[in-house]
Amino acid sequence: MITNQLLQARASLLQSAAVSTRLVSVPQRGYLPYHQKKYDKYFKPQYFDNVQRTPDTLGKIKYNTQDPLFFDYANENVNGGIPVILENIKEKGTYKLPLRNLGFILYHIAKNDIYDPNLFGKFEETYREITSVNMTARHNMGGVYGYYRSNQGSRYGLDYWEDHLQKNSAFLHVVDIAELVEGFSYNRTLPREYFRQKLTEVHKPVLLKNWQKEASHHQRMLFIFCKRFHELQYYDEELWSLLVKDVEKKLKINNTHFFSTFYETFSEINKDPKNPFFQKLDPVLKTLGTTHYTKDRQWRYSLENGGHWKSWQTLKDNRESSQLSDFLIKKAEIDQKVLEQAKAVERKLKRLRMAKLSKDLFDEIVSEMLKEKRTLMEMMAELDVDDQAIYDAQERIAKRNTQSQQAGGATVEKKAPPAEKKVAKK
């Protein structure tokens, strides 16, 4: 009997415990939005996998972490770098990849100076089978850059990538063309005239369109184009006019290497009779020599003979004549006139604050404003009062003026006439 009662009590306890556990809300794993597949478009955006991506306005151009050709070289000890990707491709034999992935791989093969002509040949065998869907102009640039800089692959592969680049050239940016110019400077298989023609036909319209917002205020872009165009002997008058104009109006040139490149290049162009800018850059050279040839550059750089870096022996010989005080960073001298103006403004503001405590001072300021023919709105704004306060001040001023006039008239009447002088009769 007792055993049955114990069993029934135990069963009831277990049943109540089960009910209580069902009532407790246990959090489920994966309940956050970024764990759910339907929200992937918000938490895993792929802007550069779609041609119709965000518009390329001035505020949207950020080729940093959103660069479709970006690779995390800072953590190369963790991810293994590009060689790991290439080994994986060779082991699996998956040479038929989306064209945007091939552009990424070719770009970083050239960046890492990896020499593997067989890999280029394997990729070229798949060009006829793959499509260029969801490929951006930046990917196109990466493929062309890989062929230019690495000096690998056949002419067929280069033409294939350049055709795609020409179709998407309207979506290129100045930084893309700057990288192409840099990449071609390493090329030893194509003639210089070939790339000069490409610059004129394909890339010049893009440069002229985007120069103002992407190159004018970017000194490194100006430095790259000045150096590489001069090496290519590419002297297009429109592009060089923009470059020279931007360099001339700079208030500060970032470092001496930029300054030396600009000065030496412009000096050579100015002395070349065959150049379209022959003897036209004298004002620019004068500006560079006066504005940007500072003391910090004079001790190690010379403007003689078109500009050159001073030798080590010259620096040793001149070390005694250099004074430390010439290179100390000092506070700029403040103009005394500006200080006086600031003090006058401060005195005026103090006087306006005191006018709220003294009616006589307030009336004095109002009378000065009336003499200056200020409007009622100007007086209200400057004194920070309403119109009634100004009307009251005008009444007090008028009353004070009438009282002073009456007092002046009374004193004149009270004043006795001068006594007549008596003249003695002869």
TrEMBL record:
Skewed-composition ranges (Basic and acidic residues): 412-426
CDD domains in the record: mS89 (cd23692)
Residues covered by region (Disordered): 397-426
Protein's recorded name: Uncharacterized protein
Protein species of origin: Halteria grandinella
